[in-house]
Design a protein that fits this description.
Type VII secretion protein EccC; P-loop_NTPase; mainly alpha; 74 residues; FtsK/SpoIIIE/SftA; 39% helix
Length: 74
Amino acid sequence: DEFSELLTAKPDFIETFVQIGRIGRSLGVHLLLASQRLEEGRLRGLETHLSYRIGLRTFSAAESRAALGVPDAY
């Protein structure tokens, strides 16, 4: 449930997810990442490999931009 907690504990782990997103896309691999809060800039390149994003409601416009690229979920 807490992708953000994983990145807090192991910040370099994002590079593994970027590789999975880059290589896995052509192989039909899908990533399902979940977090209650996500800081802007935390995804560090992973967002380019995410075709679909779902955001119900965020705590701030900045969190909405971090997750969806737009402030609409705030």
